[in-house]
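Thread amino acids onto this structure.
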């Protein structure tokens, strides 16, 4: 089966995003804001919302591989991958509650997410991101809402390799204080999945204003932020349930940090050894056993 023919609307937009014209990108953003549910809209209504011509709308759906807008709308009726949890649940209940709710279905969805992510992120993007992280004297990481846990994960890995890795607005503090401290040679890493607050865009804009480079790990829901960053790593987060899956995002962060460790060589060897020694000292100060088998 032709892969494009079998791809969902969000996957097709992600694949074509970097090749879209400004007008097509505006229309793609409107579709994203509708969570991909275009089933109740006529093509001219979407075009009007995006302030583009009907011809631009027709070109976009042709570029995405649909024979017509009607074909795209028919597919949208059967898919709710972009919808927030409340709408996904509503759709499931409307269909009689029938869905594949087995562990196998979720694992298979993540296998697809990982496969699509691998196809979407070119090696050159990963290598450039690695080089940026290695060269940066200080790294700032931010992520809000569902992205917070992945931002913490990225920081937990990178702080083992780099001496100055900071979270923006940590523990509820003001982001303005951190943004004011940023320097042009610093690096900003944004973990930005579904429903990012305006604050994320504001931080990226300010970073760009002072000439900072930035890396964005995201999915299609936050894809419009890609125009504000140096390197974007787009992942897939589809799930058969009402919640997004972040397996692909976690894997990309893990791979990125592991590649940084390889690139830094003996510099990380010395740091990791020192950290391990300090772990033991801290454990001893707390009276914990040296026996690593102790539970």
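Threaded sequence (295 positions):
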């Amino acid at each position: 089966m032709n892969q494009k023919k079998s791809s969902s609307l969000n996957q097709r937009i992600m694949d074509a995003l970097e090749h879209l014209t400004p007008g097509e990108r505006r229309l793609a953003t409107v579709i994203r804001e509708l969570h991909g549910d275009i089933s109740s809209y006529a093509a001219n209504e979407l075009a009007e919302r995006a302030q583009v011509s009907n011809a631009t709308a027709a070109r976009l759906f042709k570029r995405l591989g649909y024979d017509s807008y009607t074909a795209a709308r028919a597919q949208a009726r059967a898919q709710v991958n972009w919808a927030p949890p409340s709408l996904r649940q509503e759709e499931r209940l409307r269909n009689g509650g029938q869905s594949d709710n087995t562990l196998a279905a979720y694992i298979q969805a993540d296998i697809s997410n990982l496969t699509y992510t691998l196809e979407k992120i070119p090696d050159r993007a990963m290598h450039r991101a690695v080089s940026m992280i290695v060269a940066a004297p200080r790294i700032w990481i931010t992520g809000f809402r569902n992205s917070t846990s992945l931002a913490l994960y990225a920081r937990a890995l990178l702080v083992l390799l780099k001496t100055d890795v900071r979270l923006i607005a940590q523990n509820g503090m003001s982001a303005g204080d951190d943004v004011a401290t940023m320097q042009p040679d610093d690096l900003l890493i944004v973990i930005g999945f579904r429903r990012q607050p305006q604050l994320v865009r504001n931080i990226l804009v300010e970073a760009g204003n002072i000439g900072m480079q930035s890396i964005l790990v995201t999915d299609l829901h936050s894809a419009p932020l890609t125009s504000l960053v140096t390197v974007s790593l787009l992942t897939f987060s589809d799930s058969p349930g009402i919640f997004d899956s972040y397996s692909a995002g976690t894997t990309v962060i893990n791979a990125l940090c592991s590649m940084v460790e390889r690139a830094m060589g003996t510099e990380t060897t010395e740091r990791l050894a020192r950290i391990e020694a300090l772990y033991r000292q801290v454990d001893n100060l707390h009276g914990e056993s040296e026996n690593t088998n102790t539970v």
